[in-house]
Request: fold
Amino acid sequence: MLDDSKKLNEFIRLGSQLNDIQDLDILLEKILTETRNFVNADAGSIQIKSGDELEFSNVQTESIQKKLPAGQKLIYKTFKVPINLKSLSGYAATTGEILNIPDVYKISRDVSYQFDSSYDKKSNYRTTSMLAVPLKTPRQQIIGVMQIINSLDNNGNVKAFSKDDELYVRHFASMASIILQRAQMTRALILRMISMAELRDPKETGPHVNRVAAYAVEIYEKWAILHGVTKTEIDKNRDLLRVSAMLHDVGKVAISDLILKKPARFNDEEYTIMKTHTYHGAKLFRFKQSEFDEASSEVALRHHENWDGTGYPGQIDIETGEPLEKDSKGNAAPFKGEEIPLFGRIVALADVFDALSSKRVYKDAWSEKDVLNEIKISSGKKFDPELVNIFFDSLDLIRSISSRYPDKSK
Reply:
C-alpha cells in the first residue's frame, strides 16, 4: 500500500500512463488494476453503461487470481444489470453518488439498494466492503460505474474503506472517466471503419473483429511471458496489437461487391483479386505517424502468410502489388517461418479460428472439435507451432472471449 506522501506523484504518473493507452478494453483493465492497487483492494469491476443497463466489462479478484497456475488468467462471464435504485452499481449510476459500504451483507432495509449475493455464491467469494463510484464525463454524464471491493489492511484483513480511500478513488474515477471517454471515441471510430467494410462484406462484423483482437492479445501475452518480455513492453504491445488486429481486413473496402458478397466460394480469378485486400489494407497506413500505423500496416499485410511459405502476398510493393523478389515460378517470393512478423502470425491463427467457428453465407459453423483438429494439423504448415501450443494452453480463456462477443444472430 502506498504512503500518503507518495500518492500524489503516483496519481500524476498514472494519469500520464493511462493517456498513452488507445484500446478501450486494455484501458479498462489498467484503470481497475491501478485503482485497486492505489487503495489496496482485493477485487473490483468496471461496468460500462449500455442503454438502460450496466455491462460488466472488466472483473478482477486478486485473491482468486493468486490461486491459479502461473500465467493463467481469471475467467469471467460478462453480464448486465439494470440501471435502477435496487442494486449498488445501479444506484450509483442513477444518482451519480458514491456508495461507501462497510459490509454489503449488513445494509439497512431502509434504503432502496441491496447487495445481490448470488455473485459471491457463484464465485465462492465473500464480498464485504465496497465502494461503488460513478464514472462521469466533464458534463456529468454517467458512462459507467467502478466497484472497488474488500479494502485490505497491512495484514491482509478486510476492512472498511476510509474517507481518504473514497477521496482518492473519486479523483481517480474523474481522471479515468475523461480518458475512458476518449478511448470509447477511438473504439467507435474503429468500429465505424469496420462498419464500412461490413457494408461491403457481411462477414466483417464488430463481434468478429472484437473476438479476433481479444484472442490475439491473449496469445501474444502468453508468448511474451514465455520469451521474457518486460511487463512495460507487453502492455505497450497488447495495446498496439488489439487495435491493429481489429483492422486486419479493412483493405476489403477496395474489393468489388460482386466478389465480397458472392454467396459461394471464389473461383481462381476471384480469389486472386480477393488476396489484394492485404496490401490495400496496408496502404491505408502507409503514411506512418505512429507505432499504431506501423502495427496496423503489418497486420493487414501479413495475416495471410503461412508458416511454410504457402501464404500471400509475399514480398511485394504495397503500392502496386508487384513482386519485389520472385520465386522460381515468377510469383512474389514467399514469407515463411519467423520471417513473418509476430503480429501477423498471431492474427493469422486468431482469424482462422474465428472464421471456422462462425457461420458464413457459404458454410455452417464448424464444430469446436473439427476447428481444433484443423488448427492442430495446420501447426507447422499454416501456423507457427509455438503459437498453436499457446493457443491450446489458453483454450478456456479463448472460449470465454467467444461468449463475450456473440454474433448478432445468436
User: Anything to note?
Assistant: The radius of gyration is 23 Å. Residues 4-183 form a domain with the Beta-Lactamase fold (CATH 3.30.450.40). Strands lie at 41-50, 53-61, 80-82, 99-101, 130-136, 142-152, 158-159.
